[in-house]
Amino acid sequence: MSTAPLEAAASELDVHRAVASVDDPEYPSISIVDLGLLERLEIDADGAVTIGLVPTFTGCPALAVIAEDVERAVGSVPGVHSVTVDWLTSPLWSIDRVSDDARRALAERFTVAVQIGRDPVNCPRCGEPTIEQSMFGPSRCRSVHRCPTCSETVEVMRG
């Protein structure tokens, strides 16, 4: 008869919290969950966890870093015995997946605005409309605008 204590199974809430503790490498203090990357979370009876993430775009240079951070965070949850991160090809990520909290944090901390559809983009500093300077920003999902009112350069996340 074994006297070893039974290990509790990992809870979905604990695993979700672990994933939510992972920040986007480009935006420290903004969770990948708030940026809309988490699509699926599965835990089997043996403590194997599979996390399905949606990349902002397939060529994003941060994908490997994000996957490693998720594996480390989820792997530290009691009851988790293995972690697999899958980058999903469907659904496609869109800017609509970004939470309101993340939109506010992007504007306040990083001067990044979020563009929905073709709506005008307002400056995160002064609130006035911006002018697109380049539809090509530092990554495929961003463009560069300038605010004619306060002269701020604004990165714009688009999807």
Topology:
Layout: H1 12-20, E1 23-24, E2 27-31, E3 38-43, E4 48-53, H2 63-75, E5 82-87, H3 100-110, E6 112-114, E7 131-134, E8 142-146, E9 153-157
Parallel strand pairs: 4-5, 6-9
Antiparallel strand pairs: 1-2, 3-4, 7-8, 8-9
Molecular structure report:
This protein is an alpha/beta fold and 159 residues long. The chain is 21% helix and 26% strand. The chain is elongated, with a radius of gyration of 19 Å. The N terminus is likely disordered.
Structural class: alpha/beta
What is the CATH topology classification name of the largest domain? GMP Synthetase, Chain A, domain 3
The CATH architecture name of the largest domain reads 2-Layer Sandwich
Query: What is the gyration radius calculated from CA atoms?
Result: 19 Å
Low-confidence stretches: 1-6
CATH superfamily of the largest domain: Fe-S cluster assembly (FSCA)
H-E order: HEEEEHEHEEEE
First-residue to last-residue Cα separation: 58 Å
Number of helices in the DSSP assignment = 3
Q: Mean pLDDT, rounded to whole units?
A: 90
Taken as a percent bin, the fraction of beta residues is 25-35%
Descriptive key words:
single chain; 159 residues; alpha/beta; GMP Synthetase, Chain A, domain 3; 2 domains; four-stranded mixed beta sheet; three-stranded mixed beta sheet; 3 helices; 9 strands; elongated; disordered N terminus
